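Anyone up for a design puzzle?
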């Protein structure tokens, strides 16, 4: 199989395949073509790719002659339209919010795999890009907060007096939230966390955080571990109880998402007014509308004396490790998708089936067919 890796459009700094992955794919009999400079922003030179057995080409040549094309960000409209029927494309397309685009991709006869659709099942953990990129985002969110906060995170006992530790609240204890709890603890903060899924209490506590309890949440096993919409009565109770934690916190990291919906607003203007001046909110739900009133995606704003950092592209700020993790996920997925150097489209496999969005002229992704 001829595999082609493209340079990502700026400001994306990651790249789909690391030289380590290239080495294995070449050893299995594949030809790997890398766009000139594709790894530069991840500190991976063309030389490293050549040593791994890849060929370096101009972008147009990679697009034209590769059977399977890798780019994390969706291809531009003109490049996608230039692809010939039968090509395979692997990237991150958010199919649930891009139905029109998926219809066009299908009509071109392209087989598209969207890595953000890898099923959240145990067997697919090593391919789960949402988890690995959330790990990066949760970690980096705490570092951003620490560098913006006008005070220390840890407790310090110095000749110049005793400094109390910072109080950090993490709202949404999924993959990003749990990484934020762990990172804030390592920096010495006193950490609380809240989630509408009470089953994460144990995980928060095992990382040294205190779980904020709001009784009465509905957890739906059929939602595959994801949060579900709560009743108005619960939301009111949640808001009252969370407010107490929010207003005493120096830092609040928010990651609360409900699949397919706008992110819930959990920090209101009224709560911001009561927070300490200089406090910091890092809103990782910014791209989905944000969990905080006043959040602007990809911007840092000050509202009522509180700095709000809205960010949804934190993995790009740590390209070296983010690329290693993304590439490892893709490499593990390719172990299912390729048999040696041949495509092995086994739709009996729920991971292949769940990740394939378009094939042979149709949308085949179940959530888009409902
Ligand atoms: P996510 O990014 O979809 O959401 C982040 C968190 O926000 C979730 O924990 C969610 O419960 C929480 N949340 C939603 N609304 C909220 C509200 N109003 N208030 C407070 N919290 C709210 O979550 P994620 O990190 O992608 O993880 C989702 C699920 O998938 C988890 O159960 C996780 O354990 C599971 N998971 C499974 C695998 C696997 O088995 N391969 C891998 C990763 C995650």
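Challenge accepted. My sequence:
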């Amino acid at each position: 199989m001829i595999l082609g890796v493209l340079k990502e459009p700026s400001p994306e700094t990651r790249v789909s395949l690391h030289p380590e992955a290239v080495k294995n794919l070449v050893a299995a009999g594949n030809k790997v073509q890398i766009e000139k400079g594709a790894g530069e922003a991840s500190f991976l030179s063309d030389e490293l790719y050549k040593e791994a057995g890849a060929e370096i080409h101009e972008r147009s040549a990679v697009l034209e002659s590769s059977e399977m094309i890798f780019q994390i960000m969706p291809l531009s409209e003109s490049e996608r339209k230039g692809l010939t029927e039968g090509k395979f494309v692997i990237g991150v397309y958010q199919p649930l919010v891009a139905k029109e685009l998926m219809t066009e991709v299908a009509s071109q006869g392209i087989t598209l795999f969207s890595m953000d659709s890898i099923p959240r099942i145990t067997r697919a953990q090593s391919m789960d890009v949402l988890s690995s990129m959330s790990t990066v985002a949760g970690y980096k969110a705490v570092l951003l907060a620490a560098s913006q906060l006008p005070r220390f995170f840890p407790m310090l006992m110095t000749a110049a007096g005793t400094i109390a530790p910072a109080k950090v609240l993490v709202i949404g204890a999924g993959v990003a939230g749990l990484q934020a709890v762990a990172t804030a603890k390592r920096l010495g903060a006193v950490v609380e966390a809240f989630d509408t899924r009470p089953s994460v209490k144990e995980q928060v506590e095992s990382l040294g955080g205190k779980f904020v309890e709001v009784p009465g949440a509905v957890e739906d096993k059929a939602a595959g571990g994801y949060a579900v919409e709560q009743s108005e009565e619960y939301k009111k109770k949640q808001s009252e109880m969370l407010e107490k934690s929010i207003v005493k916190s120096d830092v609040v990291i928010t990651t609360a998402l409900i699949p397919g919906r706008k992110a819930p607003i959990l920090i209101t203007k009224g709560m911001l007014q009561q927070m300490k001046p200089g406090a910091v909110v890092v809103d990782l739900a910014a791209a989905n509308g944000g969990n905080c009133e006043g959040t602007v995606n990809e911007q840092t704003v000050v509202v009522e004396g509180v700095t709000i950092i809205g960010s949804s592209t934190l993995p790009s700020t740590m390209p070296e490790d983010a690329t290693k993790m993304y590439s490892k996920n893709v490499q593990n997925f390719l172990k299912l998708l390729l048999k040696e150097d041949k495509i092995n489209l086994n739709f009996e496999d729920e991971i292949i089936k769940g990740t394939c969005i378009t094939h042979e002229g149709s949308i085949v992704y179940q959530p888009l067919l409902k």
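A detail worth pointing out: Residues 120-122, 124-125, 128, 130-131, 134, 171-177, 194-197, 225-227, 255-259, 264, 266 surround nicotinamide-adenine-dinucleotide (CB under 6 Å).
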